[in-house]
Amino acid sequence: NVTTAAYNGFARVKKHLGTAAQTADSDLVSESAKWTSTHRLRGIAYVYVRLKWDAEVFPSGWPNVSALVQGEKVYDPRTTTTAYSANWALCLGDYLTDSALGLGHAVADLNDAAWQAAANVADENVTLDDASTEKRYAVGGVVLSDAQPGDVIEQLTQAGAGFCGYI
Questions:
Q1: 133: three-class secondary structure by DSSP
Q2: Rounded distance, CA 106 to CA 103, Å?
Q3: Taking the CA of residue 33 as centre, how many other CA atoms within 13 Å lie in the half-sphere pointing to its CB?
Q4: Among 88, 112, 54, residue whose Cα is nearest residue 160
């Protein structure tokens, strides 16, 4: 339950991180005729938000609900670690090798030298007009499960002014 005094008892937010052992949200199962215990969404993160209408609590109507979300953790061949990253090359490598939501290629199928070089260029800091810095190339967004693989690859490579070839 949301504990901010104004919304206590009128808003509930439950997050699920998509673990392999994730079970269906028990509140959602009991509160919806369309959600059952088989809706586990394993491997898929989601948020269940429940609002109870009250004109005094929500005088301007239903609130807009949003979340700041970091994407899937991706493998970095430079450090052999897996962590969140907006590096387009690492995200492309993840898409190419992910067997559940991507193409399922073996990591060994990727050109390791080219992959690491692209990741290094993407991580270079560039100085902006206000003297702050940011990474040279980053990707952000959502890949829908019904997207065509070629379209996903094109969007990821465009984010880094790169290319992806298959030989």
A1: strand
A2: 9
A3: 0
A4: 88
Alpha-carbon span 115 to 136, nearest angstrom: 16
CA 117 to chain centre: 24
Q: In angstroms, how far is the first alpha carbon of the chain from the final one?
A: 53
Which helix (DSSP H) or strand (DSSP E) does residue 89 occupy?
A: helix 88-97
pLDDT tens, position by position, 21-77: 999 999 999 999 999 999 999 988 899 999 999 999 999 999 999 888 888 899 999
Two tokens, residue 154 = 């094109």
Dist. CA 73–CA 145, nearest whole Å: 17
pLDDT value at residue 73: 92
Q: Give the phi and the psi of residue 47 in degrees, each rounded to 5.
A: -125, 130
Task: Please tell me the predicted confidence (pLDDT) of residue 21.
Answer: 95
pLDDT in tens, 88-98: 999 999 999 99
